[in-house]
Amino acid sequence: MTEGPTITTIAQRAGVSIASVSRVLNGLPTRPETERRVLQAAGELGYVPNSVARSLKSRRSNQVGFAIADIGNPAYLAMIREIQPLLKAAGYRLVLHSTGSDIAEEIEVLRGLGERYADGLIMVPLRMTEEHLKMFHAARAPIVIIGAAPDGAPVDNVRTDSRTGVRLALAHLHALGRRRIGFLNGPPDTVPGAARAAGWAEASRALGLPAGPELTEVGDFYRADGAAAAGRLLDRVPDLDALVCANDLIALGALDVLRRRGRRVPDDVAVTGMDDTDLATLAWPALTSVSLGSAERGRAAAGLLLDRLAGDGQGPRVVTVEPRLVVRGSTAGQETP
């Protein structure tokens, strides 16, 4: 096997010392002419730096992890589109982890921070456990949580208020004259599921609307689960005139079922989603949805982490992104920009 180029062969080709080559390849100051000759020789010889060895020496990987529940969820894709270019501009690669919201998977990602596979981590956990909190305290690299972080956690936190988001959706439907309104939620043992259930109960009471368990169905935050939940709810309460859905994927599943059953949207049943993903504008009719600022949360999380990586030593910080209702055809209201 032919041995690849080394700093010795580069030094010979460039006519400089090995020490000079080492300084150039490690980004240390040197004379411009020396740097030019070394880089030219390295390029001619096809030299590829050993990034693994360099990271072991510097204790930096120049990588940042991003752990999410579902790589196919467009809300997370909106975050990625904002996070990746900010990290790239700062010299970091983004490493994705799709955990399936499995707690054991998330704990393994957190444990991996101790092995220096990444210099920092952005995480969107759907469930928060004592084991998460323990790993936050043990982490040897900065962590930013998108979602609600527990009190006392040594992490930066970007959150939104999905309780208010549900209230916005319900108030909009009530203003349109809808009174038999059902709620399709994700798992109530998750952070977003619990918050959205609380928002539903609070808003229903405030508006004088019925909010008993017969008007609620629970599935998961996926389109197929939304369709199944919508079918069960419509079987039980066939005279529903509106549906509040805990995310856009659930809402798309509900639209599928309503279409199959011959229920017109929004004439017979108005539908709202949450997250305001790209799918909301592609649905038919276009989906009214509560924006939780996925892109904005991604930008904020990247900014917080880059501050930490640059040496910011202040205590844990919290950034809150306010929800906003975006009205489209699925509720028959006038569309908002």
UniProtKB/TrEMBL annotation:
<keyword id="KW-0238">DNA-binding</keyword>
<dbReference type="Pfam" id="PF00356">
    <property type="entry name" value="LacI"/>
</dbReference>
<dbReference type="InterPro" id="IPR000843">
    <property type="entry name" value="HTH_LacI"/>
</dbReference>
<feature type="domain" description="HTH lacI-type">
    <location>
        <begin position="5"/>
        <end position="58"/>
    </location>
</feature>
<dbReference type="GO" id="GO:0003700">
    <property type="term" value="F:DNA-binding transcription factor activity"/>
</dbReference>
<protein>
    <submittedName>
        <fullName>LacI family transcriptional regulator</fullName>
    </submittedName>
</protein>
<dbReference type="InterPro" id="IPR028082">
    <property type="entry name" value="Peripla_BP_I"/>
</dbReference>
<dbReference type="InterPro" id="IPR010982">
    <property type="entry name" value="Lambda_DNA-bd_dom_sf"/>
</dbReference>
<keyword id="KW-0804">Transcription</keyword>
<keyword id="KW-0805">Transcription regulation</keyword>
<dbReference type="GO" id="GO:0000976">
    <property type="term" value="F:transcription cis-regulatory region binding"/>
</dbReference>
<dbReference type="Pfam" id="PF13377">
    <property type="entry name" value="Peripla_BP_3"/>
</dbReference>
<dbReference type="InterPro" id="IPR046335">
    <property type="entry name" value="LacI/GalR-like_sensor"/>
</dbReference>
